[in-house]
Specification:
By secondary structure, the protein is an alpha/beta fold. It has 15 helices and 13 strands. Helices cover 43% and strands 17% of the residues. Strands 3-4-5-6-2-1-7 form a seven-stranded mixed sheet. It has a six-stranded mixed sheet with strand order 9-10-8-11-12-13, with helices on both faces. The two termini are 14 Å apart.
């Protein structure tokens, strides 16, 4: 997909999830010059309903030749420029499920529409000036949000709360560039350049760029979350911990070692961060073929986890088996979870290694220690204040890369000034900072960048 891909054509796609026997409504969306004409060909609105923009019509979707009715539906009309893409947009609101929307989409394609590519509706909105690039990316983040905080941050981006400060920084750089170039072209007609003022403005821009860059890690946490693996030897309470933490009976709990034979997954949100929790099979040597497969999967899950909860039994303390497992996972961030403290006087025999980032005591069978565990996870994730922090800014990796480039260019400008090089040299890196800032909002962007961004969207968005 490229930025110039057939904008004059009318595109169509199913804009809602298709799930067999589920979903009450399915939407087929069209955008382009022929959207309204296709709608009039396929949609029969009985009575004296008015075909006008921003109205909803009730009627039937019919095959244009056979007049066979395919569905009873609603039709939403949004004429340009008052639409998502700033083109004529129509939506058929059909019954949910699979067949109705697929048949309606096929009729639209037969009438001359083209199947939309991933993100093409939003791409058209960007190309037509309806959205800037940060807002377009925020739409994808909002659709994929896995926590209320992630959704709030995405919504703030959609409202322009990231684009606004970036544009202001770029405008400041453009003003500085204009001042410098004016002195280069008309040096004799203008007063000398105030170098101190220029340096002060560049420093302020640099500081604000740094401030926004600091939100990159928080943004990544909100978008992707953490993968947390619960590991340990058999029968130390790993499954009980998962059940207590998720407040469900996701894992089978018995007194028999080796009950968990496979990795059990649960999705949680802790302090605004999505957490994928993996309860693994107890790691031990075994001749049971099924359990052996589960142990290997546990090792693989531990290797891929962002954080490991290493569970031991408070009654038996740190054992030789624990030490053997520890050697396999010691390179990952670790929290030691001392479980079953309700059964122990907490005189732990043995000495566990000192380099666990946190040590938490729990009695999973009685839901004790879960709050302390969540606090420890947030501290390790450097996100303890994420709920209280300003959620209006949380940049993604692409935006962080552009801001880093802008930061480096601004630093180079200041070095150039300090070295008392001619004004022409000042403009080189200043232009680099301006370009990098423009890449964030889309004022300066290549087709390849647009392809990468919008190819990650779902079809129909």
């Amino acid at each position: 997909m490229t930025a110039t891909l057939g904008q004059s054509t009318t595109i169509a796609a199913i804009a809602t999830a298709i799930v067999p026997q589920q979903g009450s409504v399915g939407i087929v969306r069209l955008s382009g010059a022929n959207a309204c004409a296709i709608a009039k060909t396929l949609f029969h609105a009985p009575g004296k309903q008015i075909w006008a923009s921003h109205r909803i019509l009730y009627g039937y979707i019919r095959h244009p030749q056979t007049k066979q009715v395919l569905d009873e539906a609603l039709l939403l009309i949004m004429q340009a420029p008052r639409s998502y893409t700033r083109e004529d947009v129509v939506e058929f609101h059909c019954h949910g499920g699979m067949m109705a929307v697929q048949q309606v989409l096929q009729l639209c394609l037969e009438q001359g529409a083209r199947l939309a590519q991933p993100g093409e509706f939003t791409l058209r909105a960007f190309l037509n000036g309806r959205l800037d690039l940060t807002q377009a990316e925020s739409i994808a983040d909002l659709v994929g949000a896995r926590s209320p905080q992630a959704a709030q941050t995405a919504l703030a981006g959609l409202q322009g709360k990231l684009a606004q400060p970036i544009r202001q920084l770029r405008t400041t750089c453009l003003d500085i560039l204009a001042e410098i170039e004016a002195r280069i072209d008309f040096e004799e007609d203008l007063p000398p350049l105030n170098e101190g003022e220029i340096q002060s403005q560049l420093k302020q821009v640099w500081e604000q760029v740094n401030h926004i860059l600091a939100t990159a890690d928080r943004g990544e946490l909100l978008r992707t979350g953490l993968k947390v693996a619960i590991v340990g030897r058999p029968n130390v309470g790993k499954s009980s911990l998962l059940n207590a933490w998720s407040q469900s009976d996701r894992a089978i709990v018995t007194e028999l070692p080796g009950t968990t034979r496979d990795v059990v997954e649960s999705q949680l949100v802790v302090g605004g961060i999505p957490i994928q929790v993996l309860d693994t099979a107890g790691i031990r040597a075994t001749e049971d073929r099924v359990e052996k497969i589960g142990v290997e999967r546990s090792r693989a899950a531990a290797q891929s986890a962002d954080l490991i909860l290493f569970v031991i039994d408070a009654e038996t303390g740190w054992t030789a088996e624990d030490a053997e497992i520890y050697l396999q996972v010691q390179h990952r961030p670790l929290i030691l979870v001392i479980n079953k403290i309700d059964l122990s006087v907490e005189n732990l025999p043995g000495q566990f290694p000192p380099n666990f980032q946190q040590v938490v005591k729990t009695a999973a069978a009685y839901n004790q220690g879960i709050d302390a565990l969540e606090t420890a996870i947030l501290e390790i994730a450097h996100a303890g204040n994420i709920q209280a922090a300003n959620l209006d800014l949380a940049i993604n990796q692409r935006q962080a890369a552009a801001l880093t480039s802008a930061k480096n260019s601004l630093e180079q400008v200041q070095i150039t000034i300090a070295n008392q090089l001619p004004l022409d040299f000042w403009t080189i890196d200043l232009r680099g900072a301006i370009q990098a800032l423009g890449e964030i909002t889309g004022e300066e962007v290549t087709e390849s960048v647009l392809d990468r961004i919008f190819s990650r969207f779902c079809i129909g968005k």
